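Q: How do we represent a protein-ligand complex in a form that can be generated token by token?
A: Start from the inputs.
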Amino acid sequence: MPDLKARHTAVVKKTALELGFQCCGISKAEYLEEEAPRLADWLKKGYQGSMGYLENHFDKRLDPTKLVPGAKSVISFLYNYNTSQQLDPHSFKVAKYAFGDDYHKVIKDKLFEFLDILRTEIGDIKGRVFVDSGPVMERAWAEKSGLGWIGKHGLLITKEQGSFMFIAELILDIDLDADQPFAKDYCGTCNACVEACPTAAILPNKTLYASRCISYLTIELKEAIPDEFKNNMNGWIYGCDICQDVCPWNRFGKPNNEPKFQVNEKLPSFTKEDWREITEDIFQDLFKDSPITRAGFKGLKRNIDFVTESES
Ligand code: SF4
Ligand code: SF4
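Then emit the structure tokens for the protein with iron/sulfur cluster bound:
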């Protein structure tokens, strides 16, 4: 009798590549023993700032069987969003992942298609899809599944493609062959991201002081940006790519070929003046499918005003 587990695993790997994922890795769905004390300590130190939702569902975050009853496997997927497209270098800055359409929707749609294919090829499967959307430790799962290592900046890095990759998870109730965890850390003596971070948000031991990170300040924070960051925003009005731009492993990255991640056609010519004069109607029209809606019109205006004030 053919090995059913091996056959199912082969279907998973083949389907992931066919749907355009750069790679996928598999782990057994079990409690993330090593992550538990690290997460508890990180939360206790308050590095999450006002992202109170990260304190919820502590056990679910570490135990996939609490998210999907009967879960047996966690599949981690990587999807490239690297790009050689650029915005006006004299204008304000926006993180690359927000150049095109919202990745949550684009990747979720792919994973639902993935699940449909598996159900046709394998049979009745129960599972849940997560794209930066639920209590899932996506970087830890990706490392455990052999896809790459977590760099000093706290992001997953692959040797082939660097770190400009979205991570998504699928938790399934079928047994699959698990991959070997990624055992090596290729950061070595490099400290480029730590030195380049303008807000000193990267702490030792791959710890991100999230509430000091420009991504948090410009997207997650709902109140005013604290004055202490006035001279440290470096022109970023939505997210920040500095620690990834300086990482030597991103020299190997290739531009993505996902049509939905190509830069919004109006963005490259947007000047600082255009950003300052943006109205709610223009915002809704320009960014209706973009992750920038997460900051909202008021949030984006607050960021533009704060950075403008810092530069004056
Ligand atoms: S995204 Fe920017 S602010 Fe955040 S850790 Fe990286 S360099 Fe620092
Ligand atoms: S910049 Fe250097 S230290 Fe930072 S993640 Fe990349 S390789 Fe590691």
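DSSP finds eleven helices and ten strands in the chain. The chain has a mean pLDDT of 95.
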